[in-house]
């Protein structure tokens, strides 16, 4: 699938790639998460069409580019109510919170739990989500 990126997500792992801590094959782009518009659909793909709004995370390097080829299994449809910027900034963090609060441990109503570093993106979304579950 070919995506015309409209907004990219910056993640701390990008710093590791830039510093060489996580080696990347050269030449290489940076970034693994973004939101944009489908411009080309792979053969056999029926769930997406050109002009669909999408968001993706954990793709191959190259999200900092204007156009990025992304496997269909990394893409999610993006509702019109969510901007490209909101999606690019929060998608991977939201996936992380879902994993933590729904798959690792299912937080129950009226349950007290401690979340360290709640000031970051994952922490903020976690506390908001847990607050909804609690009430």
Automatic annotation (TrEMBL):
Keyword Transcription assigned: no
Domain Alcohol dehydrogenase-like N-terminal: 2-80
Pfam families, alphabetized: ADH_N
Gene Ontology MF term list: mRNA 3'-UTR AU-rich region binding; NADPH binding; quinone reductase (NADPH) activity
Xref: InterPro entries: ADH-like_N (IPR013154), GroES-like_sf (IPR011032)
Any one GO cellular component localisation term in the record: cytosol
UniProt keyword annotations, A-Z: NADP, Oxidoreductase
PANTHER family noted in UniProt: QUINONE OXIDOREDUCTASE PIG3-RELATED (PTHR48106), QUINONE OXIDOREDUCTASE-RELATED (PTHR48106:SF13)
Protein name: Alcohol dehydrogenase GroES-like domain protein
Classification lineage: Bacteria, Pseudomonadati, Pseudomonadota, Gammaproteobacteria, Enterobacterales
């Amino acid at each position: 699938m070919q995506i015309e990126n409209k907004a990219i997500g910056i993640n701390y792992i990008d710093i590791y790639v830039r510093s060489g801590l996580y080696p990347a094959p050269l030449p290489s782009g940076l970034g693994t998460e973004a939101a944009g518009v489908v411009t080309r659909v792979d053969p056999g793909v029926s769930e997406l069409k050109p002009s669909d709004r999408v968001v993706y995370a954990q793709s191959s390097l190259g999200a900092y580019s204007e156009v990025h080829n992304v496997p269909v299994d990394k893409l999610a449809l993006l509702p019109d109510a969510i901007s490209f910027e909101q999606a690019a900034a929060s998608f991977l963090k939201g996936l992380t919170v879902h994993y933590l609060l729904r798959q690792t441990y299912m937080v129950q109503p009226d349950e007290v739990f401690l979340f360290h570093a709640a000031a970051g993106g994952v922490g903020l979304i976690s506390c908001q989500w847990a607050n909804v579950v609690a009430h």
